[in-house]
Request: fold
Amino acid sequence: MELKILRVRESSGDSIRSPDALVSLMTEEAKADRECFWVFHLNTGNQVIEKDLVSIGTLSSSLVHPREVFKKAILNSAARIITVHNHPGGQSFPSKDDGITWGRLDEAGKLLGITVLDHLIITPSGKFFSSYQEIYSKEKGGKHNEEERKTY
Reply:
């Protein structure tokens, strides 16, 4: 009989409090020559448990499915996730396909009890898009403190 020992993943200590903080951790990844899709697994204190490269795609797309996005998040007992993908062409705005994928991931997260905190698009120039900031801006009708908008 084989005895299996429970493996517990400890957080790295990096606490993610804003899209800017996460983007600053991804400067090299933003320069990839094809679309890549990462998932940050976070504990309840928004500390990074793991950064998981889920997909490496082509110049203009990356195949992403909720099954792969949440597999390791479940195994890591993540409370929250943040998805990040790059746009090698430099556009920081989401495509129609990005929106569809994000909607599917949001629904899957609700079903699994894992909060999808944000979806980020990063570019080689350092520009980025945060779905969290976009939604927050719309909810506040554009009337908000800039610092307040930037934090999770």
